């Protein structure tokens, strides 16, 4: 069996000049840009981003070694740090002066650790003595201090997605102080402490920047702490501890991911999964914090799947010396030259590549034996629909032994998500119809994710082909169909008529008419006009289907016209006449329709009875037995005279 790689590197990586040919390579997490900087005379900079728009090359004066370089959002202003005291700025806005301007940090004796762009014209300096929030005026080539905060800082991290900066404070570095930025304001959030491993005195541990990462998982911001195995402490392996970073209230330890090994690790987030790369074994683990482990303490997680390496990647050779037949060179995975950035970026500076890490769902199917857990896992992933449908087919193909409870569990999980979407759609529609209410935020239309598997998806991709499979007992087929219908009913989802049709066709195909009769008698199959019509079409195979159909149409009460049409098409003209009388529709019935049907039977006495019935109706309603011109019954009057003579026509009664 080949090893199943459920992680892969993006096919089209961002390529940049690798480390051997430039002085420095920098990565900007906010814009996802790589800066390759070459010094000497003038400083040459080549910027590569996710697309051509964000890629640019330029030269600037060589004023010393570049410590940090980043564009503001939209490549409008470039910020470059060359000293510990100041940051230089260059305008890239068309028609603005390109001359450099400089901003020194305000705090005396402070050293600038780095900076973060918050907006196209808002920047934060992080110094070893605090944080300074500025607005940049590119036209005036100046900055204005909006807010500052004094605090001793060891190191910092920035999450561009949420605009939160995390500062490490205190001697051990394990008290973290977050600041949030929004609409030109800076807010100080509650500080919190990271629990460090206990070590015997006098040894002391301090929190390393390498062991902390910030990322959004399922829409919530977490600080991830890589807690290493301490040789002196009695803890056998490393773990990742997740602290939920609250905008209001205290940030708390919320999840523990058990790595069950030791060594060097790196973290990524892909599709709301925490991916932990392990360098020495050259494998990765994935964790889903929404999957609860039954045998673990609350919020303690084991890996979802067995450890696997990232799918092998081959680097195509390029350059003038390349021979067309030369094979691509395998890329060294888990290399020591790799740098990992949040959420899903891996950079190899030595090879000059930036990849996005991706999850492949098909290989996970055979690695996770518990189908209920597999379904929970798949339903939370982005591109899950076709994989989920293939899992449903796979379960049904796996034979009948003990699989019906599994099928029931899977159907219920799918229909729970389906129902939640339908309810969200209904409440959105109701809100739109009632108009905006005071004080309530505008409701957004619910997004239909790939996890919404509706009845047409199941019918088209799973159930219709399943009912036609050879070698499967009809009992199992019907049990599966009824299980799906049961699940839909449990979640109060209206069952579409084509699912009932599939049940009926399967029953008829296997001559299970007694079961069909029972299903209809006990309303297991809900009444509908399409179903009644299907039953009618089965009359030649199963004669009682005709009466079952009529009974269903009567129960529908809105189907009187259909019942009449059905009876007339079966040449049951008197039956149709009796039915229309029983529901009080005789006065408005079309005489021509009934006379046409009676004449087509060739039964003269039947034609006489129907003709006389409508003459009596006309007499009662209008005081005359004759037909109005609008009823278009002239040819039937002529036909009646030919058969029975003019004297047989009813005469107007004089009262």
Automatic annotation (TrEMBL):
One of its GO terms (cellular component) is late endosome membrane. Residues 381-628 form the Mic1 domain. Residues 25-143 form the Regulator of MON1-CCZ1 complex N-terminal domain. Pfam families: RMC1_C, RMC1_N. InterPro entries: RMC1 (IPR040371), RMC1_C (IPR009755), RMC1_N (IPR049040). GO terms for biological process: regulation of autophagy. Signal peptide: none annotated. This is Regulator of MON1-CCZ1 complex. It comes from Parambassis ranga. The lineage of its organism: Eukaryota, Metazoa, Chordata, Craniata, Vertebrata.
């Amino acid at each position: 069996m080949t090893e199943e790689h459920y992680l892969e590197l993006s096919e089209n990586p961002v390529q940049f000049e690798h480390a051997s040919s430039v002085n420095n390579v920098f990565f900007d997490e906010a814009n996802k840009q790589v800066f390759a900087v070459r010094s000497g005379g003038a400083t040459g900079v080549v910027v590569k981003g996710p697309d051509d728009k964000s890629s640019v090359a330029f030269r600037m004066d060589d004023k010393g070694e570049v410590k940090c370089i980043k564009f503001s959002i939209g490549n409008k202003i470039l910020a470059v740090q060359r000293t510990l005291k100041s940051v230089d700025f260059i305008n890239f806005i068309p028609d603005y002066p390109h001359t450099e301007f400089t901003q020194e940090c305000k705090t005396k004796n402070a050293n600038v650790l780095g900076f973060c762009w918050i907006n196209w014209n808002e920047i934060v300096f992080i110094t070893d003595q605090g944080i300074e929030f500025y607005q940049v005026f590119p036209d005036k080539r100046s900055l204005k201090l909006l807010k500052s905060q004094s605090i001793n800082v060891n190191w910092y991290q920035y999450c561009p997605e949420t605009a939160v900066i995390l500062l490490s404070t205190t001697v051990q570095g394990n008290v973290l102080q977050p600041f949030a930025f929004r609409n030109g304001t800076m807010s100080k959030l509650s500080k919190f402490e990271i629990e460090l491993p206990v070590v015997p005195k006098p040894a002391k541990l301090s929190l390393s920047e390498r062991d902390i990462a910030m990322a959004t998982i399922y829409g919530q911001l977490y600080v991830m702490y890589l807690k290493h195995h301490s040789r002196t402490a009695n803890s056998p392996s490393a773990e990742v501890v997740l602290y939920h970073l609250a905008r209001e209230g205290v940030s708390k330890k919320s999840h523990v991911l058990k790595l069950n090994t030791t060594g060097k690790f790196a973290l990524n987030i892909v599709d709301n999964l925490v991916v932990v790369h392990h360098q020495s074994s050259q494998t990765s683990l994935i964790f889903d914090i929404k999957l609860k482990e039954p045998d673990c303490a609350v919020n303690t997680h084991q890996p979802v799947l067995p450890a696997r390496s990232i799918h092998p990647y081959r680097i195509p050779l390029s350059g003038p010396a390349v021979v067309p037949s030369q094979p691509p060179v395998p890329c060294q995975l888990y290399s020591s030259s790799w740098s990992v950035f949040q959420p899903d970026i891996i950079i190899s500076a030595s090879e000059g590549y930036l990849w996005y890490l991706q999850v492949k769902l098909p290989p996970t199917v055979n690695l996770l034996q518990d189908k209920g857990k597999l379904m929970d896992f798949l339903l939370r992933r982005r591109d899950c629909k076709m994989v989920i449908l293939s899992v449903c087919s796979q379960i049904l193909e796996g034979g009948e032994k003990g699989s019906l409870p599994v099928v029931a569990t899977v159907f219920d999980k799918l229909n729970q998500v389906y129902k939640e979407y339908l309810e969200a759609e209904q409440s959105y529609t109701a809100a739109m119809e009632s108009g905006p209410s005071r004080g309530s935020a505008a409701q957004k239309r619910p997004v239909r994710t790939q996890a919404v598997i509706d009845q047409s998806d199941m019918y088209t991709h799973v159930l219709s082909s399943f009912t036609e499979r050879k070698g499967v007992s009809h009992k199992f087929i019907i049990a599966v169909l009824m299980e799906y219908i049961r699940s839909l009913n449990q979640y109060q989802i209206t069952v579409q008529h084509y699912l009932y049709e599939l049940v009926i066709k399967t029953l008829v195909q296997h001559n299970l008419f007694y079961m069909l009769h029972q299903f209809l008698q006990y309303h297991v199959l809900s009444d509908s006009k399409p179903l009644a019509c299907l039953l009618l079409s089965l009359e030649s195979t199963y004669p009682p289907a005709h009466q079952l159909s009529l009974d269903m149409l009567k129960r529908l009460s809105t189907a009187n016209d259909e019942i009449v049409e059905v009876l007339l098409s079966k040449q049951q003209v008197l039956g149709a006449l009796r039915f229309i009388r029983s529901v009080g529709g005789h006065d408005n019935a079309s005489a021509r329709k009934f006379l046409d049907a009676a004449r087509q039977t060739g039964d003269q006495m039947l034609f006489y009875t129907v003709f006389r019935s409508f003459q009596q109706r006309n007499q009662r309603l209008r005081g005359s037995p004759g037909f109005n011109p609008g009823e278009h019954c002239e040819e039937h009057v002529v036909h009646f005279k030919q058969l029975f003579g003019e004297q047989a026509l009813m005469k107007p009664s004089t009262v």
